[in-house]
Every structure is written in C-alpha cells, then in structure tokens.
Amino acid sequence: MLLQKKESRFRFQLVRGILVAALACSCLSFYTAGMASEPSAKTGDPEEQAVFTVAKKYLDAEVVRDLPAVYAFLAPSSAYCAAHDYEAFVAEANASPVRIIEYKILRVAHIMKNDDLKNFPRVEKFAYVEVDVVVFYKDTNQKADVNIGFTFIKERGKWYKG
What we know:
Elements: H1 2-25, E1 34-36, H2 46-63, H3 67-72, H4 79-83, H5 86-95, E2 98-113, E3 125-137, E4 142-155, E5 158-161
C-alpha cells in the first residue's frame, strides 16, 4: 500500500511537471529571475543575436511580472493571442500558481525560414530557444528544474514569443 502511494505521488509529480512545461509554453504566468548566457554559436550571426535579445527581454519582463510587457512580446498572429485578449491573459497569469523563479538561456538552437505560408501566412521565420528554468509552485511551496524549448517567430521583421 505504501509503495502504491509513493508510485501514485511520483506519477502526480511527473504529470504536474509536464503540465508546468505546457503552461509555461502557453505563457500563462511566469515569474522569472534569470540569467542569460551569450548565444552558444559565437558566429556573430545578427539574427541569432536578435532572437537571444528578445528571449532575454521577454524572460526579464517575466521576472518583474510586467504583464503588459510580457503580453507585448507575444506574437500577434499566435494562436494564444487569437484566443486571449490582454484582460484574459492577465486573469490567467494571476490565477496560475506556477512561477518561474530562475532561468538560464542555454542556446538559440534553430532559426529557420517559414516554408508553410499556407498555415502561417504572417510568419517569416521560426526560432527555437532552449532555456533551463526553476519553477516554483505557489500552492505547494515546491520547486522543480525544467528544461523548456520556447518558440519565437518573426513577423514583419520583428521577433516575438510564439
């Protein structure tokens, strides 16, 4: 019975961790106090640097819970923005017990041209940014380390959180 209880708690924590990653990727609510390293490829690629800079500014806005700034970083053509106006975003952000209390940008992993203009007509490019975060659960007062891949998209020459 005790083993069954431990297995059940482990499964709950595992599922909760997966849900946290999904919530984070959905921009529901973050609280980040972070660190950022320079882009891993020291190529001097201006596009990579632009993605890194936007990712850092986005996460820094999360640090201070500057919700107007966080919402402004969201891609105008994203499914999230299509379904959530600013007021809905703020309500979700305030209701969520999940916060990111630390982050470290590991790398801008991929930048690629949009080859699917039919489904993403306003997107010029996609970028994938790998970030390590420490998630804090306000409701349980627990922390967890999570590796997350954030998608950024370029629209009309500007990078946004996807």
